[in-house]
Amino acid sequence: MVAAAVVAGPVPWLAAAGAAPAVAGRAVLVTTVDGAVTPVTARHLAGALERAQREAAQLVVVELDTPGGLDSAMRDMVKDILASPVPVAVYVSPAGARAASAGAVITFAGHLAAMAPGTAIGASTPVDLAGGDVSRKVVNDATAFAESIARLRGRNVDFAADAVRDGRSASAAEAVELGVVDLEAPTLAALLQQVDGRTMTVSGDRPVTLVLAGATVVRDEMSLLERVQQALADPNLAYLFLSLGTMALILELASPGVGAGGVVGAVLLLLAMFSLAVLPVNVVGLLLMALAAGLFMVELFVPGVGVAAAGGAVALGLSGLFLVRDVPGFEVSAAVLVPVALLAGAAALVAGRVARTVRGAPAQTGTGLLRGRTVSVSRTEGAGGWAFVEGAWWRLRGAEGATLVTGQAVRVVEVDGLELVVEATGVPTTRGEK
């Protein structure tokens, strides 16, 4: 989608003669990183930077609002920004947005860093599985990386270190005052007006002067597929898909039907696999999920007093706690975890009782349906006879060699191949069953 935005008014600090050459293009490419930092957002940013280079854009603006995300995805984004031959402005916006954790380092990496009023930056301390402090080795590595990026861009190195070590944060005004970011701008148009004429050094130590007066703003948003992928990169959805998919398959195995449960379960598990492919998965969580599935199977096939179902519910709840490493923005919500675990345990308990009842009931299909039926001998043939039962003619044979009589009421005691073994009921009849 293309939207035209004309930056009004001449800018007094336009590049003078002898200054760095201006970019030939007349467009500003704007892309959005909204939500957790994942491999999907990293790929999208890489694509936007490639497009900007291909179309000789003046500037790439990354509108950023993130609580953080995966360290690996963040480092990929930082590398792409540092290697970009087109200047990149990271703009924390709109009002109320934040560049927390990984988002702060991405902001440091921009050739230009800006924030809208009412935004915040910082709080980059790594956390462990339980949300607590990680080892000093991990903290030192994250600190060194943030410091090196801030130093490369001439920004406040002490703030970068404190954001990692102590979780320090700053408002937009404070960040500008401390030299964490370059400027504060209420809107994108205001940002472009303020940076018009600035010279920046891009990859290869090449100076570029921005000439933005009259530049066209081109939006490069995520495609539908990327939006779906980003939405699926949610630990709550992954937990739901994995839990419900497993339960659907277990119920299908316990009471085979038309296969709807199996199909739904397979689809949900495939979606869960995609979600887990882009999430920081912990093997312990997967093992606990497998344990929960095993306990539910025990409850279904060997129902008891509900101990297996209760154990499965506990294991399922614990799997949600351990399934995804506790990276900011990647927690499984208790509002999802607790109800799903309780409902799954209750469903397994009820399904076990139903399965036991069904397994103990008389057969309702096949030849077992004929046992116990009372039929009428339509005609005799020797000691045996024939009867019309369930839309078909069946040969009758008296139990223990008994002779049958036309019109006699007999009860089916056994099905022997294509013959019904019958015994007299003591109730005479003269009408055949049809």
What does this structure look like?
Helices cover 43% and strands 20% of the residues. The chain is elongated and about 110 Å long. The protein has helices at 39-54, 71-83, 102-109, 136-152, 157-165, 172-178, 188-195, 224-232, 235-254, 260-277, 283-301, 307-322, 334-360; strands spanning 2-3, 27-34, 59-65, 88-92, 98-100, 112-115, 120-122, 169-171, 183-184, 199-202, 206-209, 216-219, 374-376, 379-381, 384-389, 392-398, 408-416, 419-428. The strands form four sheets. A seven-stranded mixed beta sheet has the order 1-12-2-3-4-6-9, covered by helices on one side. Strands 13-17-18-16-15-14 form a six-stranded mixed beta sheet, with no helix packed on it. It has a three-stranded mixed beta sheet with strand order 5-7-8. The chain has three domains: 2-226, Alpha-Beta Complex (2-enoyl-CoA Hydratase, Chain A, domain 1), CATH 3.90.226; 234-360; 366-428, Nucleic acid-binding proteins (OB fold (Dihydrolipoamide Acetyltransferase, E2P), Beta Barrel), CATH 2.40.50.140. The chain has 434 residues and is of the alpha/beta class. A hairpin with a 2-residue loop joins β14 and β15.
